[in-house]
Design a protein that fits this description.
The complex is a heterotetramer, with two copies of chain A and two copies of chain B.
Chain A (H helix, E strand, L loop, with lengths): L3 E2 L5 H8 L6 E8 L3 E2 L2 E10 L1 H18 L3 E7 L1 E4 L3 E9 L2 H18 L2 E7 L4 E4 L7 E2 L7
Parallel strand pairs in A: 1-5
Antiparallel strand pairs in A: 2-7, 3-4, 4-6, 4-8, 5-7, 8-9, 9-10
Chain B lengths: L6 E8 L1 H7 L3 E7 L2 E2 H9 L12 E4 L2 E3 L4 E2 L4 E5 L6
Parallel strand pairs in B: 1-7
Antiparallel strand pairs in B: 1-2, 3-6, 4-5, 4-7
Classes of the chains: A alpha+beta, B alpha+beta.
Chain lengths: 148, 87, 148, 87
């Protein structure tokens, strides 16, 4: 299954892919579009990706988790235009016991944020836009035109 | 190939803010090869708008993150990656 | 909302109770009925509770989590007859950031298991039954009749 | 109340395996009050089937877990709780 999708994420369907009678614990993480960032009101945002690399990296993260723990992982990241409250990313970790399910779910979302080439452009209520940049002061970079 | 400084076209992909400031999603640069990733980045930064790129951005060759001193080979797909913001 | 239910748990509805535009991270735990326990094949099970005490204790655990972290918690535990794969317990923790959501979700399920008076009777494929007892050798106690 | 050893009815709730082995969900025991939880448990264990209960089960009074030396008052609801197995 591809890990990137341009459609709405169905978290329940994702969970059903990995839940099984032998796995009594399922831990899910949903990342939702928030209405604020750095004190500004967000109206919507656009996710884009270097898609082939992002797919490869997502698959690698899932493999790493599944070889490290006795766990089955489902992972989807949405791309395109999202509005407030939409699910941007979903991870489900299903395992025989809860400690492993929690640990593996946390690992996957942390690695997705650290390694997968996906970018986010925020549209603010004042009509401006900014590129989310966790390394920048304020977390956002908004380019102004070059001086003439 | 006609000599040690033969030049070749390198395909460079740009994403997100980097594509915005360069005004392009992909570039084809004529460069003497082999060149390092750092030299490819320097060539991109010399283009109009390129000064807005950092001198040491994240880079990938053929879908894998690579260090600045990695050599770029003919046919490689180079990508310059702004700070990741997934999740 | 009561925390105990005799009906099927709707995990998505539970999540929607606590998700909000200010909370970008939702971590869910689902506990599902497994098909094996201690090497025996489980066919179904019955959950029972000291209901007023269990409700009180669940509400207290939720309050503790919500006062300790900036988080909103939804918690439901099902009672009655369940079959393999049914959701027995669901916890959703929604928070502005993921670290808190993971920590609070884990806290709630750990405390539910440690403090809430709920019991589980397993029905095995060989027709026998056993009371789940995490303190017993093998995890189950099956009483035999007193000798005459 | 007619003297120091006046007896009163204590309502004792039994759950799960404890209800199975005693054959009852609830008991009404005549006991001299005040008595400790431990004394209430001992009275339950003296009933038919009661020997299958441990000498120190988890106990609650009025929906709160209490230690074995807690005094039971007239009107209290006592509950004997098998090892918890929720989740």
């Amino acid at each position: 299954m591809p890990h990137l999708t341009h459609a709405a994420i169905d978290a329940a369907a994702l969970a059903h892919r990995v839940q099984s009678p032998a796995r009594g614990a399922a831990v899910s993480f949903l990342g939702l579009v928030r209405d604020h960032h750095g004190g500004r009101t967000v109206e919507r945002l656009d996710y884009s990706a270097y898609e082939p690399m992002a797919e490869t990296e997502c698959a690698r993260i899932v493999s790493e988790a599944e070889s490290r723990w006795p766990v089955a992982i489902a992972l989807e990241h949405r791309l395109g235009r999202l509005t407030i409250g939409d699910v941007a990313v979903a991870v489900v970790a299903a395992a025989p016991h809860r400690a492993v399910a929690f640990e593996a779910c946390r690992f996957v979302i942390d690695e997705v944020k650290a390694r997968v080439p996906i970018w986010k452009r925020e549209h603010y209520s004042d009509g401006t836009v900014g590129w989310v940049d966790p390394t920048a002061a304020g977390g956002v970079v908004a380019d102004r035109p070059d001086p003439p | 190939m006609t000599g040690p400084a033969a030049s070749a076209a390198v395909r460079v992909l740009l994403f997100a803010r980097y594509a915005d400031v360069l005004g392009a999603d992909a570039l084809s640069l004529e460069l003497p090869l082999p060149a390092t990733l750092e030299q490819v980045v320097a060539a991109v930064r010399a283009l109009p708008g390129g000064h807005r790129l950092p001198p040491h951005p994240l880079c990938a060759i053929n879908l894998e993150q690579r260090a600045a001193d990695t050599l770029v080979q003919p046919g490689d797909e180079v990508a310059l990656l702004p700070p990741l913001a997934g999740g």
